[in-house]
Amino acid sequence: MKSKIRDLQILLQKEDLFGAKNFCEDFLRNQNIDDAKFYNLYALILYKLNNYEHAIDNWKKSLEIDPNVIESYNGLANSFLKLEKFDEAIKNFDQILKIKPSIGEIYHGKAFALMNLCKFDDAINNFKIALKKNPNNPDIYNMLGSTFFRQKKWEEACENFVKALELKHDHSLASKNLINLLTFYQPKKNLDNSIIETNNLLKEKKFEFQLKNEITDDQIINYFSKIYKLLTKNLQNYFLDDEQIFRRNKLNLDCERHFEVFNNYKVIPKYCFSCYKIQIEPKNIIDLFKLYIFFDHLELKNNNIRKCIIESRPKVSGTYKGLIYCTGVEELKTIFHKVSLLLKKSFGYDMPIFMKRGCTEFSIPYPKFKEIDESMKYDDDWSKFENKIDKNNNYKEKKSSENTLNGTSISDVLIMRNWLIFAKKINDSCYKKFNIDLPEINYFDKKLNGQIEFRKKQFQNNNNI
Is the dihedral of CA 385, 362, 343, 337 positive or negative? Predict the structure, then answer.
C-alpha cells in the first residue's frame, strides 16, 4: 500500500489530477481499501477538481478508519465552505481545535464561516485569535476588515484594510475593499496609506459646474487629464474589474437576490414590478463622462440611485447608458420631466431619454414588462419560487447601502479609464481626445468575448440616429 500511496503522491506533485483520479478509481475497483491516508489523498484530488460532494464522502471514509486525521477534518471543513454549508464547516473546524488548538489557520477558517452566518462578534473573536497566532497574515486583517464592514463599523474596517496593505502593499482584495469604502466614507483618523491620500487629493479636484450651464468637451477632457495624472502619479498598477459608476442612497435594491430568482426559475420577482427607470443614452464616450458629472451634481428629493454604464451584456442593445431608479410611476414622471429640461441645458441637444420598468433582461422573455402602463401584472404563483430562493439564502443578511460621497473617487477614475478602453475597442474615436496611454486589461477581453463586432455596430447605429 505504501508504494501505491507514493505513486499517488508523485502524480499529485506533477499536478496530474485526472491521472491521479483515474489511478484511485482503478485501484478501488480491484480491491477493498482500508487506509485512511489513501482516502484522504483521493478526497484531496476530488477537491482540487471541484468535486466537493464526492470529496466529502471520501474524507468521511478516511475518518471512519482513523478519527484523528486533522487533514481530513480540514478537507471536510473547506469543502463545506465551498458548498456554503457554513454550520457543517464550523463543526469540522471545531473537531480540529479539539485535537490541536494551536493551529491559527483553523481559527481563520472558522471565523470566515461565522462571518457568513452573520455571527459577526464570534467571527471577530476568532479572527483576533488567528492574528495572535499569525500576526503578519494580511488575509486575516482583510477578512477582519470585511467583518467590521458588514457591521457598518467603517473606521475599524478601514484600519484593518490599511493594516493588510501595510503587510502586503499589492493585496488586491484589501485595496479593492478600501477603494469601495472610500466611495461613501471619509476616514476620521489620519492613516498613512497611499489609497486614502490619493482619494483625498481627488476630492479636492472639484469640477465646478451648475446644471443650468452647458458642459463642454474641453472641460471634460481637461478635468479627466488632471485627475488621471494625479492617480497614476500616486498609485501604480491599480485596476478595477467594474464598469458602472453609482451614486447610491441608503436603499438596497437587492438586485442580486432578484436575479437569482429570475435566473433559476425565469420569473420576475414581485419587488421588480414597482421598480422604474429613466434611461439616458449618451452618443459617445465624452458625453458619458458629462453624464457622470451631471449625475454627481443632480439633486433629487429622494436622492434616487443613479448610475452611468457601458453596455456589455450579451445581446443587449445600446452602448453608453445612464439610469435613474424610481419607485412608482408618479415619481418616475416627475423626475423625467425635471431631468429632461436639465439635460437640454447641460448638453445643448436633445439626448435620447425614455421611461421603462425594471431590468432589460426581464423584458426579453416578457416584452410587456418594460411598459410603464403596468399592463403586465405580477403572477401570484411566482411567489413559491421566490420563497425557495429566500429559504436557501436564509443565512444571508439583507445588505444595506450608503449615500455616495459627492466628488470624484479613486473608484470613479479607474472605472472611467475602463470606459475609455471600451470606447477604443468599439471604434469610438472620441477616446483619442483624452490623449492618454490606455493599458490592456484582460477583464475586457473576457467580458466582451464574442461581442466586439456587435458592440461596434451598436455604436454606429446609435450615432446614425
Answer: negative
pLDDT at 441: 84
**Is residue 317 a contact partner of residue 458, using CB atoms and an 8 Å limit?**
yes
Report the distance separating Cα 307 and Cα 183, nearest Å.
Answer: 13
The residues that bridge with 357 in the sheet, in sequence order, are 276
Neighbouring-strand partners of residue 354: 279
CA dist., res. 142 & res. 400, Å (int): 20
**What secondary structure does DSSP assign to 350-385, as a single string?**
---EEEEES-HHHHTT-GGGG-TT--S---GGGHHH
How many C-beta neighbours within 10 Å does residue 218 have?
10
Distance CA 358, CA 370 (A): 6
Instruction: Supply 346's cell numbers.
Output: 447641460
* Confidence (pLDDT) at 403: 95
pLDDT of residue 7: 73
Angle between helical axes of 120-133 and 104-116 (0-180°, round to 10) = 160
Whole-number Cα distances in Å, 97 to 93, 108, 117, 120: 6, 12, 20, 20
Domains of the chain plus CATH, in order, are 2-190 (1.25.40.10), 244-464 (no CATH)
Say which DSSP state 274 is in.
Answer: G
- Tell me the three cell numbers of residue 183: 466611495
- Report the chain's C-alpha Rg in angstroms: 26
Give residue for cell 481530513.
72
6: pLDDT confidence band, cut at 50, 70 and 90? confident
Asked if 438 and 219 touch (Cβ cutoff 8 Å), the reply is no
One DSSP character per residue, 99-133 reads H-TT-HHHHHHHHHHHHHTT-HHHHHHHHHHHHHH
Task: List, in sequence order, every beta strand (DSSP E) within 393-447.
Answer: none
* CA–CA dist 355, 334 (Å, integer): 11
pLDDT digits (tens, 9 = 90+) for 57-87: 999 999 999 998 999 999 999 999 999 999 9
The residues that bridge with 275 in the sheet, in sequence order, are: 327
Sheet of 320-327: strand order equals 244-247, 306-310, 320-327, 275-280, 353-357
DSSP bridge partners of 310: 320
Cβ atoms of residues 410 and 179 within 8 Å: yes
Least confident of 117-131, 213-227, 245-259, 392-406: 392-406
In the chain, what's the furthest Cα-to-Cα distance?
83
Q: Of 450, 397, 440, which Cα lies nearest the Cα of 417? A: 440
| Three-class DSSP category at 2 | helix
Sign of the CA dihedral 15, 21, 23, 24? positive
